[in-house]
Amino acid sequence: MSAEATNPEAAPTDVTVRRRGRARIDLRRLGRAALLNATAGPAPRDRLPDAIGHVAEAHRAHHPEADLTVLGRAYVLAESSHRGQFRKSGEPYITHPLAVTLILAELGAETTTLTASLLHDTVEDTEVTLDQVRREFGDEVAYLVDGVTKVEKIDYGAAAEPETFRKMLVATGSDVRVMSIKLADRLHNMRTLGVMRPEKQARIAKVTRDVLIPLAERLGVQALKTELEDLVFAILHPEEYETTRALVADHPGAVDELGAVAEQVTAVLREAGIGAEVLVRPRHFVSVHRIRLKRGELRGCDFGRLLVLVAEDADCYGVLGELHTCFTPVISEFKDFIAAPKFNLYQSLHTAIAAPDGAVAEVLIRTHRMHKVAEAGVVALGNPHVGQEPDGTAPPTEDGERVDPTRPGWLSRLLDWQQSAPDPDTFWTSLRADLAEDDEITVFRADGSAPGTISLPVGASCVDAAYAQHGEAAHACLGARVNGRLAPLSTVLGDGDTVQLLLAQDTVSGPSPDWLDHARTPAARIAITGWLRAHPESAAPPAPTGTRPQVSVPADRRSGAELHADLDGEPPAAVRPAGCCTPVPPDEITGFRVRGGSVTVHRARCSAADAMRDLGREPVAVRWGDTAQGRVTLVAESFGRPGLLADLTEAIATFGAAVVSANVEPPTEQRVRHTYTLQLPDTAGLAALMKAMRDVPGVYDVSRARHARGLG
């Protein structure tokens, strides 16, 4: 289905230029075909209905031996049950399941998935029952149809959407084909969203951005993900979309420039005796937008990449060697996702080469099989249960549920914590937060017990590892050993770290509210929140009655600004700004009492403050003193270049800010994160300072610190 999909049978040294975009389905033509098919009566037994001829053709391209009779029967049931229904665009409703099925057929989905796709709205929108689907098409198809069927709004009200996604996630845990159908369904709905009201378009686009696109990325279905990104981009950011579209239109020769480099690469590989197919892959709009933000002015080769397809894994490294020998390689762009595949099954070698004329082209090197998986992800893997049982289904567990042995770690985490989030709002918020994490790390358990590894999102701490390994028993965690050394629970873990969690022997111990500042995973946050809600006496010491003294912190303490708190009874041990949001005047603030009798002050919209309120914690009235100075932590995201650190510190010094501490993390994919704690003479100039830092060449974002890095 992808614009860059290739034919593995093509000549090994062909250079092919692919056009942007994918073939759209002519809904009016499909509607006419469906109506004609309905009026003409059922098709003969030996012939498929004309309306699904395009589906059959796409399916046979991937599965030449497929039995198509079941597709004909599914279409007849879908067409007859949806007859008389129309989409908002005016086409007969049957055009929607046909279009969704064609999307999956072009990706290479097997017959069972296509059958369920044709029927995916019948149980939800017609008189067809799930039992009827099961009787006529079997348990597999019925399971998939049930997985994508929405829950009734009459039963769930406003919670219908999150509960529908919860249901689909649980079903996906047993069969990833459920989410494949949902992604194709959303893609076709996004393609035809123009008939909706603008506010509804925006709402659907936001859910697609926050939930469906991350799921497509994690399931490796890049062909769906990239088109969904462009469609969302056009709705939510119309001005940037038009700018990008115009930029692409103004560079019609970009493909030709890449084609010239492709011819040089083809010649090099032909001379080396390596059979390869070299293709030009234009970037989609969102990719062009991102690369423009990264590099500024774009050259011809920036509008696409070269794709080199070979037969065997070893040939990938042979191609890499020839390219690095005959061209000037850009070493910083090299990544090996074959030896270390991404968590979404993606495998490729990435590199960049400079041609003799100075043009730099990014190159992807993979086998035909890798390319199919890179484009179609789990859709290309077919039935995950084949081979598990003689009937082709997975062996049932003790509770009768099927289990997919290939279920990825991130999906297991989602399924684990969603059971602890009965509230739909908590589930919906936690799901979006979990899916917002772009990558995973793997840490090793020091005790050697199975499983020996724990998968966590990047930025996870020992708190997250404790709840991932021990569940609610982690309430008694006292500390950890990371790589053999004692470490606080706030320690942020890195990929490959070895972790040993230390638990108290008693059952009385419980988590501190401060743990919420270090918990990144929903499983940990939900468990901690639940315990604190059940033990309110542990959340904060009881406040004695009496007078309401004002307590202030001098300017040389953590924020550098004076803070006042109004409390009943004895004054707190300290009033300090929270490290998670580093409030400074004139931020709107709120305070909460914590263990030890102190008051922690948060920005009013800080997520940690929201969590405190959710726990029923009573806020404390706090206010700023008369001082204008303050201390703040800023995070600058940038692309690495010589002199960047000097330019940033110069911009900071121009505003009279003093650098209290600075940290520059090692570059990752040419991106560098700078963290500065600054003493400001006047916090009113914070916005101007952040703008000046953003204006430094190479810096693409400057933000206030959102996550505490330590216990202090």
Question: What would the keywords be for this entry?
Answer:
alpha+beta, 7-stranded mixed β-sheet, disordered C terminus, globular, 5-stranded mixed β-sheet
Task: Walk me through what this model shows.
The two termini are 52 Å apart. It is built from 26 helices and 22 strands. Residues 1-25, 387-406, 540-560 and 707-712 have low confidence and may be disordered. 41% of the residues lie in helices and 17% in strands. It is of the alpha+beta class and 712 residues long. The strands form five sheets. Strands 1, 2, 3, 4, 5, 6 and 7 form a seven-stranded mixed sheet that branches. Strands 9-8-12-10-11 form a five-stranded mixed sheet. It has a four-stranded antiparallel sheet with strand order 20-21-19-22, covered by helices on one side.
Range of strand content: 15-25%
> What's the total helix number?
26
| CA-atom Rg in angstroms | 29 Å
Roughly how much helix do the residues carry, as a percent range? 40-55%
Terminal Cα span? 52 Å
The major beta sheet can be summarized as: 7 strands, mixed
Briefly note the structural class of the backbone. Answer: alpha+beta
| Principal-axis shape | globular
**Which residue ranges are poorly predicted, with pLDDT under 50 across at least 5 consecutive positions?**
1-25, 387-406, 540-560, 707-712
Number of strands: 22
Mean pLDDT: 77
List the helices and strands and how they pair.
Blueprint (H helix, E strand, L loop, with lengths): L14 E3 L9 H13 L13 H10 L6 H14 L12 H13 L3 H8 L3 H4 L4 H8 L1 H10 L4 H4 L3 H15 L2 H15 L6 H21 L3 H15 L1 H12 L4 H18 L5 E6 L2 H11 L8 E7 L2 H14 L1 E2 L5 E2 L12 E6 L5 E8 H9 L32 H10 L5 H12 L4 E6 L7 E5 L4 H9 L6 E6 L2 E3 L10 E6 L18 H13 L1 H4 L10 E4 L9 E4 L8 E3 L11 E5 L5 E5 L3 H8 L6 E4 L5 E10 L4 H11 L3 E7 L6 E10 L5 H9 L4 E6 L8
Parallel strand pairs: 1-2, 3-7, 8-12, 15-17
Antiparallel strand pairs: 2-3, 4-6, 5-6, 6-7, 8-9, 10-11, 10-12, 13-14, 14-18, 16-17, 19-21, 19-22, 20-21
